[in-house]
Amino acid sequence: MPILSIDGLEKIFSSANRKEKVLKGINLEITKGEITALTGASGSGKSTLLTIAAGLQKSTAGTIIFQNEALTDMNPRQVRAIRAKKFGFVFQHAHLVPFLTVQEQLELMMDTAELKWSKDRRNEEIKSILDLVDMWGHRDSYPGTLSGGGKQRVAIARAVVHKPEMLFADEPTASLDSKRSMEVMKLLRTLSRERNITVLMVTHEEETLEYADTIVQMKDGVIGKE
Ligand SMILES: Nc1ncnc2c1ncn2[C@@H]1O[C@H](COP(=O)(O)OP(=O)(O)OP(=O)(O)O)[C@@H](O)[C@H]1O
Ligand SMILES: [Mg+2]
């Protein structure tokens, strides 16, 4: 049973004088606990597919089933609840809140997910994930004082501190050098293996693909054959 199934997904962007079909009937099954990497040329529709699968924008046609429920049939409030509780997000840049410490960034995420965890449980989860990303020593630091790789590791910790089912990552290594990119990929693999988090990611970089369990090649709005 896939954790996420995408069937006949289409997306058309319309403006006053033009219509562009960006996704042209995508069928894709994401296996639980795996890392699936979307790759392909710029403009092929990778980010559009990722953000629709994650409930961040709506499709024009097609269905998305997450854990036996059709995301595409839900009202906006239901989609927001799934996003907040079951999904985590990482992007090319860390997008940390400048005036919150590392620990406070994670607390904010737990509040958003409306977890009923005790204070002790919250602290344990924060310690556990910050240890994993090797940032516990920086828990009282503000983002401005962290390195690029450090910021991205905090962003990953923040994306999974509420124990989501799925992590959606759009080019999470694109702003990092090769060594830091590999560290981030190892981290994603640890999250998938040890915490059973299913990862759907977009990547341009060939060397990151070796960490993926499944590679999906996109070409001009369709999934191509490798
Ligand atoms: N909000 C939008 N409105 C109109 N067109 C859009 C919008 N978002 C994306 N597009 C168009 O859809 C196509 C696919 O974009 P998308 O961002 O999904 O590509 P991508 O594969 O992620 O590219 P990249 O590797 O450069 O990030 C592009 O032609 C883009 O211009
Ligand atoms: Mg993109």
TrEMBL record:
Gene Ontology molecular-function annotations: ATP binding; ATP hydrolysis activity; transmembrane transporter activity
Matching CDD domains: ABC_MJ0796_LolCDE_FtsE (cd03255)
GO CC aspect terms: plasma membrane
Keywords: ATP-binding, Nucleotide-binding, Transport
Xref: SMART domains: AAA
Claim: Oxidoreductase is one of the keywords in the record: no
Taxonomic superkingdom: Bacteria
Gene3D superfamilies: P-loop containing nucleotide triphosphate hydrolases
Xref: InterPro entries: AAA+_ATPase, ABC_transporter-like_ATP-bd, ABC_transpr_LolD-like, MacB-like_ATP-bd, P-loop_NTPase
Residues of the ABC transporter domain: 4-226
Family annotation (PANTHER family): IMPORT ATP-BINDING PROTEIN
Protein name per Swiss-Prot or TrEMBL: ABC transporter ATP-binding protein
Organism from which the protein derives: Salinicoccus roseus
